[in-house]
Amino acid sequence: MEQTSPRLDSLAPQRFPVVVVGAGPAGLTVGNVLRAAGVDCLVLEAETRESIERRPRAGVIEERVVRGLERRGLARNLLERAELHTACEFRFGGERYRFSYRELTGSHHWVYPQPLLVADLVREYADVRGGRIRFGVRDVRLHGLDGDRPSVSYVCPETGRRQVVVCDFVAGCDGARGVTRASVAPERARVARHDYGIGWLALLAEAPPSADCVLFGCHPDGFAGQMPRSPEVTRYYLQCPPGDDPDDWPHERVWAELRRRLGAAGAAPPAEGPLIEKRVLDMHDYVTEPMAFGRLFLAGDAAHLVAPIAAKGMNLALHDAFLLGDALAARLTEGDDGGLAGYSAACLRRVWDYQEFSQWLSELYHGTATGDPFRAGTTLARLRRLFSSPSAAAAFAEQYLGTAARY
Asked: Locate the FAD-binding domain: which residues (predicted)?
């Protein structure tokens, strides 16, 4: 872990109880929780405010996460504007199979694009709760994390000089490629990785969804998915080789594959529209253990990455943020160390459960496209069981919705 000293020509140090590195959903939620508790903090973000409020990301949010945001005063716009989803639909063997999870569990999903949530969280943190945030910072470095006086330094975008911030704790919420996880010495952390060996072509289309719910097409030629984002915008996924070139997927090929892989008796074909995003995601996961190192606490993708197979990434990040924000507030306002001491273990129980579900779901999505008759046969048996066995359906719904009570 880097223990370097700030440069001697730095500006006079500032002082905040907590420095949050990264202004994604996790970092902004931690900041909002701290401000609500009367704790000062500083959020550092490499991008501009406009960039983080526009970059396309996830949109499916678990009901438990929404309730967690609501309890912390962070869900007003979401509850007014988000779409409520109560079912999903599997398509395989040329047929449609609707899975009504609210009928099974009484719970549902919300669909609210991450850029809208980030915009809400930034507004609440900076404009309503008076939180300090610096955008466009460069060359962030962490110092003295094993002592009782850690600090974070960064190059100020206005002056070009290094600014030092002394703090009590650092919240690392800066994603998979951020500086906080990279600051942990390799011998202090175990990083477990898994590569699925497949890619997904991620598409964002200016077109209405062809159905009122999420669609999963389990096709011998590869998986296809439809995830509604709004009445005018739809997220699509197409299984492809890892590392595939998005330019090899022109408009005509994309829509032909979507029609074929999502095709089923009585189903409307996808409504075509301009493709405003097209990129290939290589499906892989990792988990960093532990998630706490001295005065540094990791959250979200800085600690773990779960492939978008199960739409769990943003949900995991927000679960982390609730625990970390509450634990930091308890420590700084009441002197209670219990939450911080148990933070890593509490987060990792959920992380590993979601990782296991992602692996299980990957076989459901991709097994028929492996070219292996045995795997294709067992995958179809698994799919049919979801619609013939109440216990199998209930187990899937619990994991899909994130409603397990054991966390």
From this structure: 16-357
Tens-digit pLDDT profile for residues 264-283: 999 999 999 999 999 999 99
Instruction: Answer yes or no: is pLDDT of 9 > 60.
Output: no
Cα distance between residue 289 and residue 142, in whole Å: 19
Residue 16, token pair as written in the block: 């905040």
Tell whether omega for the bond before 290 is within 30 degrees of 0, i.e. cis: yes
Question: Which string of b and e fits 51-79 if b means at least 16 CB within 10 Å?
Answer: ebbeebebbbbbbbbbebbeebebbeebe
Write out the two tokens for 62: 């678990």
Round the CA-based radius of gyration of the chain to a whole number and report it: 22
In tens, the pLDDT along 117-147 reads 999 999 999 999 999 999 999 999 999 999 9
| Model confidence, pTM | 0.92
Both structure tokens of 234: 């739809």
Sign of CA dihedral 355, 118, 326, 69: negative
Neighbours of 339 (CB within 10 A): 18
| DSSP helix/strand/coil, 292 | strand
